[in-house]
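Can't paste images in this forum, so I'm doing it all in text. The chain is below; anyone willing to post the predicted structure tokens underneath?
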Amino acid sequence: MSVGEVLAARRTCRSFTSDPLPSGLIDDLVDRARRTPTAGNCQGVEFLVLDDPGDVAAFWDTTLPQDRRSSFPWPGMLEVPALVLPFGLPERYLDRYREPDKAGSGLGNDAGDWSVPHWLTDAAFAAMAFQLLVVEAGLACCFFGLFGNEAAVRGRFDVPDTARAPGVVAVGYPDPEGDRPSGSAGRQRRPRDEVLHRGCW
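Text version of the structure:
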């Protein structure tokens, strides 16, 4: 598949079978996804892979307690065999931007000095690349945010406190019987001429 074909084929899947993924597949996809651009070649994105049923269950227990599951609109999400969380590590960026060739930027002292935190940008690049690779591999995926659960997830899985994740990618085989679109799915894509500004806004 070409990049264009993968982009056209990508859809958010919210219902999965519990079928396990082939051994080594997630590791291979992560290895390829980590080759996305990274500020200063910091390589400051690391991945938490949850593909053991106990770890996946622990994630849902942490982010969606049992007492809230009866009202959860996508129960098929809970069947997903793998969750991948790309985390950006600010320290790697601060350390890199203290090095002689970057020190003049003034960005090596404090994470607050970055108007755009590139550890999150780079993690988002990796998350997008990972999703495209998942689609290319013939699987389904769903990207969703951690919102107020990020600290709890870091604590549950011993992730460093400073690490930041733009979200989670659920990966597995789609279960078309249980899938239903979100309320946002009916929104039409904005016309190209509405989003493209040439020369000035």
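The CA atoms of residues 128 and 200 lie 28 Å apart. The first helix runs from residue 3 to 9.
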